[in-house]
Write a structure and sequence with these properties.
238 residues, alpha/beta
């Protein structure tokens, strides 16, 4: 099995990459923007688990990086986890913030599908990582939330267009304690909210990785265009 995970060097992406290595993937490629040290550490961990690591460095929307993804050859699994965004109230955003956030979080999935899907074998999977902000209004989250809503819509369209050979789904994550939260001014409040779900603990990267692994398994053959919410029941509460 050959896997590519965008944003795969840290946090949720790293957990997903390692999960596939533990499950027997022969080659796991991870995309990352610029943190060479984190990527190299993850590559070593992948190697220790028996997978051949491949590092793809750079902006996931660039033609060079997309070319490197295409050059990986047929992928059994493509996971678009890379995400970024400007964290501001709506009226304090600029057009360049919109373009940056929407391109990286939503358009990149379409770009990756264009270069990867024509080579992907029957039974392969594409999974996008979304967030509750696609459906719920979160503080300072307008651009990221809107990009994730676009991502979820794209998942549905791709699920229909790429069927029956390739299945496409998404995992919507609750609050996960990763380095990404450092950029939020209300980080502590978000963590507290994340712990207030019915399960009583915050969602961990491995929880998301497990959901992704399921969606890419034969057991999910008839799951198409769905958004699997992994939030400990947080979104069920009034």
């Amino acid at each position: 099995m050959t896997v590519f995970v965008s944003g795969g060097s840290r946090g949720i992406g790293r957990a997903i990459a390692l999960r596939f290595a533990r499950d027997g993937a022969k080659r796991v490629a991870i995309g990352y923007l610029r943190n060479d040290l984190a990527a190299e550490v993850t590559a070593t961990e992948l190697q220790e688990l028996g997978a051949e690591p491949v590092l793809v460095r750079g902006n996931i929307t660039s033609e060079r990086v997309l070319g490197e993804v295409a050059a990986l050859g047929p992928l059994d699994v493509l996971v678009h986890n890379a995400a970024t965004g400007v964290i501001r109230p709506a009226l304090e955003t600029e057009d360049k913030h919109w373009d940056w956030t929407l391109n990286a979080n939503a358009r990149a999935l379409l770009q990756l599908a264009r270069v990867a899907a024509p080579q992907m074998p029957d039974g392969s999977s594409i999974v996008a990582i979304s967030s509750l902000g696609a459906q719920r209004v979160l503080e300072n989250y307008v651009l990221i939330g809107t990009s994730k809503a676009a991502l979820e819509s794209l998942v549905r369209y791709l699920a229909v267009e790429l069927a029956p050979g390739i299945r496409v789904n998404a995992v919507s994550a609750g609050v996960v304690e990763t380095g990404a939260l450092e950029h939020f001014p209300n980080r502590e409040a978000m963590l507290e909210a994340g712990r207030s779900n019915p399960v009583g603990r915050i969602v961990e990267p491995d929880d998301i990785a497990g959901a992704v692994a399921f969606l890419c398994s034969p057991d999910a053959a008839m799951v198409r265009g769905q958004i699997l919410i992994v939030d400990g029941g947080f979104s069920l509460l009034a």
